[in-house]
Design the sequence.
């Protein structure tokens, strides 16, 4: 299996490696509920570390979005065309989402008409109106997603909507590294404030806006990398600051722990752009690229498969260790298979410059250039 940078086709394959890490973190977070068990034993700090680190795959995805979506325009590699940009974004993310939306609705119908203790505790009863409301990726309605992982899609879409403004600001002569560092500092303060404010608001639309502000440092971190090349030492400094912030925020949650991952992953992503050959080579491993290129399909479908499996097994058993092990034994391979099918039959036909698109399963014949 050959390894390369992927720059020849304007795709950095080591970023696909980072996407693989991000989706594996999310997958682990939704599969194993260690944090609740640790909390029950009084290990709250460690429980929060496990919980938020698993969920931090979302923060890594947000940083990567800030880099990948804006970098070509800020580096003069592509001229921004409003119409073409949004058509490309729509065709890239919506077809797989539609299929995942249909499947999620089907699972909710099954769980509603064949209820058990799992569906009564965790799954909302199927409503055709609520299901239709989720057809829009940007969830502007006060509705519970039929797939619990989709909450971050609204935040991602809000970032898409702000990209034209971001490009206009960042292509001006005043957009220097000091300005962006100032924006980053202000966004960290705003995010810390909003993480407390969101707990005291009843407005659904306001909650979406606050959620975006809570994760804003991730996008600004990615935008900064898209605009400027970091010296390696500054990447390490950001990583160190992120780790220190994480340790402090575990003790003082009001500081917004998501800020720590924004700083940490900004440092990590900027580091791989400094031609750190060993890191790039590891992240560009064909298996990681293969996983990373399927990360969106994994994200869209795995939680629905988990819900279906856990509901199905709950029809025959009660909550117990046996139930836990049976569901995980079934749901993990089933979620992987469903994700691969979604990618192979839908997503890959709307994506460009993929290195492993024609391989349903990993193969020694894969070549990453």
Sequence:
């Amino acid at each position: 299996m050959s390894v390369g940078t992927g720059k020849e086709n304007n795709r950095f394959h080591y970023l696909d490696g980072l996407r693989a890490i991000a989706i594996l973190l999310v997958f682990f977070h939704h599969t194993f509920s260690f944090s609740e068990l640790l909390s029950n034993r009084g290990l709250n700090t460690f429980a929060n570390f496990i919980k938020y680190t698993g969920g931090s795959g979302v923060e890594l995805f947000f940083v990567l979005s800030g880099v990948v979506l804006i970098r070509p325009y800020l580096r003069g590699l592509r001229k921004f065309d409003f119409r073409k940009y949004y058509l490309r974004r729509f065709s890239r993310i919506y077809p797989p989402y539609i299929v995942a939306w249909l499947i999620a609705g089907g699972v909710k119908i099954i769980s509603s008409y064949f209820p058990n203790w799992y569906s009564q505790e965790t799954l909302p009863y199927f409503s055709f109106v609520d299901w239709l409301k989720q057809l829009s990726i940007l969830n502007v309605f006060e509705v519970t997603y039929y797939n619990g992982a989709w909450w971050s899609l609204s935040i991602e879409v809000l970032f898409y909507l702000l990209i034209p403004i971001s490009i206009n600001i960042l292509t001006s002569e005043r957009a220097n590294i000091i300005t962006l560092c100032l924006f980053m500092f202000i966004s960290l303060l705003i995010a810390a404030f909003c993480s407390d404010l969101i707990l005291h608001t009843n407005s659904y639309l306001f909650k979406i806006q606050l959620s975006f502000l809570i994760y804003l440092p991730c996008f600004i971190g990615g935008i900064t990398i898209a605009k400027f090349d970091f010296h390696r030492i500054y990447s390490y400094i950001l990583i160190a600051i992120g780790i220190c912030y994480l340790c402090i925020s575990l003790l003082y949650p009001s500081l917004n722990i998501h800020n720590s991952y924004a700083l940490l992953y900004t440092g990590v992503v900027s580091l791989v752009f400094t031609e750190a050959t060993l890191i790039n080579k590891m992240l560009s491993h064909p298996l990681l690229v293969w996983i990373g290129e399927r990360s969106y399909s994994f994200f869209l479908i795995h939680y629905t498969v988990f819900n279906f499996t856990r509901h199905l097994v709950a029809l025959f058993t009660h909550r117990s260790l046996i139930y836990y092990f049976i569901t995980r034994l079934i749901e993990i391979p089933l979620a992987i298979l469903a994700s691969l099918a979604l990618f192979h039959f839908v997503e890959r036909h709307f994506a460009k410059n993929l290195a492993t698109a024609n391989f349903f399963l990993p193969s020694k014949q894969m070549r990453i250039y």
In short: Residues 7-350 form one domain. DSSP finds 17 helices and no strands in the chain. Confidence is low (pLDDT under 50) at residues 1-9.
